[in-house]
Design goal:
The chain is mainly α. Helix content is about 90%, strand content about 0%. The model has no long low-confidence stretch (mean pLDDT about 95).
Length: about 60
């Protein structure tokens, strides 16, 4: 996983956690949902990057 993409995904995950927590404190369901969405997007980004790394590793073996 490229460091730049990993950093972006990690930052998005942290932003999502903070937004969800703020929504929990203020009892704002919109902030809660948006925070969870950001976390899901970050997870998807990590999955894509991990898949790219796996493919690259297989190509490099051959």
């Amino acid at each position: 996983m490229s460091a730049k993409q990993k950093g972006k995904a990690t930052l998005k995950n942290v932003e999502g956690k903070v937004q969800e927590a703020a929504g929990n404190v203020t009892e704002d369901p919109e902030d809660q949902a948006e925070g969870k969405i950001k976390q899901a997007e970050a997870s998807a980004q990590h999955t894509v990057e991990n898949a790219k790394d796996a493919v690259k590793k297989q190509i490099d073996k051959h």
